[in-house]
Amino acid sequence: MGEVLASLATGLWRWDTASGLVTVDAEAARLLGLPARGTTLTESQTRARLHPVDWNEITGVVGLAVAENTLAEVRIRVMDELGRVVRVVRSRSKPSFDPARRSFRLIGTLQEVTEPTPGTPAGRSAVTGDWRRSREAFLLDAGRALAEARSTEEVLRVAAGLSMPGFSPDGLAVFGIEGDRLTLVGYHGQQPGAVAPFTQLALSTDYPAAEVVRTGRAVYLSSPQQYRTRYPVTWPIAAPFARHSWAFLPLTVAGRTMGAWMAGFAYPVAFTPDERSVLTTVARMLAQALSRAGTAESERALTDGLQRSMMPTLGPRTPGLRVAARYVPTGGGLQVGGDWYDVIPLPGGTEAGGGRVALVIGDVQGHDVRAAGLMGQLRIALRAYASEGHRPDAVLSRASRFLHGMTYGTPEGEDESELRFATCLYVEADPATGTLDIARAGHPDPAIRMADGTVLARATAGGLPLGIDPDADYPTTRIVLEPGETMLICTDGLIETGGHDLDSGWQRIRAILEEHSGDLEELADALVRGVHGPSSHHTTGPLADRREDDIAVLLLSRAGTGTGPDASAAAGPAVRRTLLKVAQAEPERVAVARQQLRELLHDWPSADQVDSAVLLLSETLTNVLVHTDADALVQAEVRGGPGGRRMRVEVTDTGDDLPHRRHPGELASSGRGLVLIELLADTWGVDPRGEGKTIWFELREPAGEVGQEASAESAKP
């Protein structure tokens, strides 16, 4: 069959969208401008050989053919390495859809379409008989492609790929204006060295593009003789390109000529009224696209400068602590928003940063210039309050009053819908002890990555977002960052991007934290890349064009044992620990304590023991809340290595009454706490304190089940 098709100059191709591979035989490869032998291409390699407009049309035709159960037929322009159309082929295929893999599979033929010579009467008359190459269809495709271009480089690339109906240039150049000079903005179809004479020309130069800019009128040159006669001064630098016709058109936006477009042809073109109409329309669309791209590039440059001026540098390293940060603005508009972070040296430290530091992260409502302005002012205020030596709760209370005064002191007649608030998390860190004092204003809780890779979301006390209530209180939560551990604080953009809610977003982030084994900077990049693609932080690379929400990320790591980012190799026992306060007024935090214990025991081999530990924790916590007027402090830890680990849970309160064993009846709803502890715990006890007591229990890891778990893990594919 292949020999029969080859004798008919027909190639055979197959395309599987699930694998992303296109297989062609020798004839199809030749038609695509490749060596005449069978080969397999990726979709990107195939797309590079085809006109971009035609590639988009293929995908639409395939979907329609599947829906209507018909053949998919389309004409395709094949391009060379310089972006020129070398031939037109007709593709016929029978596509099928695989619902299981949600992919298409196509088998089809390619056959060259004989086109009349461009620029000849037959070539121009053929346009009326081919709707795909007609003037209206071409202008529609060109307008759509130029409208989607978002940079000057992309506009020029689209313009270079335009195949005009019946006549196509083999080279183009775009000129701009800088003062009294004509500058070359971009070109296509010329060697880089050959365009050197055109890079900077005075507007008074006897050159067609300069005349177009001066007069605002197009210049059409149908032959070299016309060029040489009208522009004898610049003809010597144009002659080496060996072209036969030229069109120079003004690029005009809002009545102002911003430059000129040159289209050069390798064959004679008469520039009939129809051809001039097409060129004029393309020039107008090109001018609009270049104007939009220039505005967008200026906005991006302004945004980058504004955002860099607002984002702090991390400053000198603090001995014992490592900090990494990333910021990614939202897409669209000026790409500025209200997320921010800051690292503040606190009073009492040295100039080298050896004392306490504060880490701040926050999010002002909105993604516009006003949000960015408020963010900048709030960041300065927080830095000032922190530098005065205030504790975390006082810093946030003062910041809340500051923002409330700014946003709710609205002048009469101003739109009150513009009133703003901000979430914030403030952490005061002591590098000597690893103590972290945290105050939170409506912001997501921090997460801790322990030395062995275990990740816990640390519940902290909090208050209202800043700016809502000037008298709001912000309680402080103290946790200890152990050696080898890393704390993550971030804005909700990192969590909720991609349609995730807080729960599913945290699970995605938790997986990145658990699986990563690099240093702190690599972990920061992995977090941003894991939800958004490349980071826009000025030390790490470009920003992806579209974002759902701003992202700010701060990572704080304490050097020490373990396998976490930047952990040292110092020896020491493996310890996991979590601490949580459950107040009388917050019984719902019992559920938080249970969840934290489960997360702490995520790799404990005995599920029954985990359930037992969670049950006993609930019993001891409930006993404190029901039978005393005191708050409860929960501390849970796991010590040792696999096969010999021990979990210990302590619940401390300030009540004076010691627990005692009771004998509840069959219908009693309480009184079984100590009975359960005796039955389920390996050891337990009650330790009186100076004020209050601590109830504790321990469970030891069953060595036999560790081996079973290891075998099960090794058996996984």
If you had to describe this structure to a student in words, what would you say it looks like?
This protein is α+β, with helices and mostly antiparallel strands. The protein folds into 4 domains: 2-114, Beta-Lactamase, CATH 3.30.450; 135-302, Beta-Lactamase (2-Layer Sandwich), CATH 3.30.450; 318-409 and 418-558, PPM-type phosphatase domain (Phosphatase 2c, domain 1), CATH 3.60.40.10; 575-715, Heat Shock Protein 90, CATH 3.30.565.10. The chain is built from 20 helices and 27 strands. The strands form 5 sheets. A 6-stranded antiparallel beta sheet has the order 3-2-1-6-5-4. The protein has a 6-stranded antiparallel beta sheet with strand order 9-8-7-12-11-10, sandwiched between helices. Strand 5 (85-98) and strand 6 form a beta hairpin. Helix 6 runs parallel beside helix 11 (273-310), helix 17 (589-600) packs antiparallel against helix 18 and helix 18 (607-627) packs antiparallel against helix 19 (673-680). The relative contact order is 0.06.
Topology:
Blueprint: H1 2-7, E1 10-16, E2 21-24, H2 26-31, E3 39-42, H3 43-49, H4 52-68, E4 72-79, E5 85-98, E6 103-113, H5 121-126, H6 135-148, H7 152-160, E7 171-178, E8 181-188, E9 200-202, H8 208-215, E10 219-221, H9 224-230, H10 235-238, E11 245-253, E12 256-265, H11 273-310, E13 321-328, E14 339-345, E15 357-364, H12 369-387, H13 392-407, E16 422-429, E17 435-441, E18 447-449, E19 455-457, E20 476-480, E21 486-490, H14 492-496, H15 502-515, H16 520-532, E22 551-558, E23 575-582, H17 589-600, H18 607-627, E24 632-639, E25 646-653, H19 673-680, E26 683-688, E27 693-700, H20 703-715
Antiparallel strand pairs: 1-2, 1-6, 2-3, 4-5, 5-6, 7-8, 7-12, 8-9, 10-11, 11-12, 13-22, 14-15, 15-16, 16-17, 17-20, 18-19, 18-21, 21-22, 23-24, 24-25, 25-27, 26-27
